[in-house]
Amino acid sequence: MATGTEPRPDEDSSGVRARPRAAIAAPHLRTDRWWLAPAVTAAGLFAFVVYSTWRAFSNAHYYAAPYVSPFYSPCLAENCRTMRAGPNAGLLGGWWGLSPALIILIFPLGFRLTCYYYRKAYYRAFWASPPACAVAEPHRRYTGETRFPLVLQNIHRYFFYAALLVAGVLTYDTALAFRDTHYRWGHMGLGTLVFLVNIVLIWAYTLSCHSCRHIVGGKLKHFSRHPARYRAWQFVGRLNARHMQLAWASLLSVALADFYVYLVASGVFDDPRFF
Hints:
Layout: H1 36-58, E1 63-64, E2 67-68, H2 101-104, H3 106-113, H4 116-127, H5 156-176, H6 190-207, H7 210-217, H8 227-240, H9 243-265
Antiparallel strand pairs: 1-2
Helix pairs in contact: 1-4, 1-9, 3-5, 5-6, 6-9, 7-8
């Protein structure tokens, strides 16, 4: 008996229009503003990409003692400005002539691009895969992350290790922010507060990563035999429940920290000092 849901012979028989699916004529049955969330996500991510690209290639106004932009830390080339007791490494020597930010940004960018939340965010926002829940994607076939280039998403856990190192360097930069412009310790400015908020959010986002949760408590058959790892797993699990919020908060904070350094370094205003 025909039910009225069988696909017509001329219909596409792949993807969401495959024969086992109900043959609904409408693209979807949602009546709410389902497009708003992916549109806002696309706008936010696009704005960050534009801003970070400008700052990464500008190669200027990234250091105002004692603050160094998180986009340029640590400096792995010799063409960085000299930062007293700062993250000057110069491991690549003098042959690197482009902005030093292009070296270090590979690691936090790779960590965020392969992050489970960000995958969902930009898959939906830019590729419409799928645009939203209960809304069919426009692609005829779905292969997941089994082919190049999306198969490279599986290196997320290795970018997590690199992100830990970068977060460690940014923690060091935050400690150096408790100096004044003459590198004397025991001082705090508005920039110090900006850096403190940023590093807390950076660590919270990094530790809320799904890979971190697996590393801390994965492959354990008996939590009772590993109480320390169990408590750490519970802590990371609570952070993981806020992974999306922490992802956006840390993305905003790192951009604001860089922009604050840019304003001070370019002479727009002097860093207000609390003590």
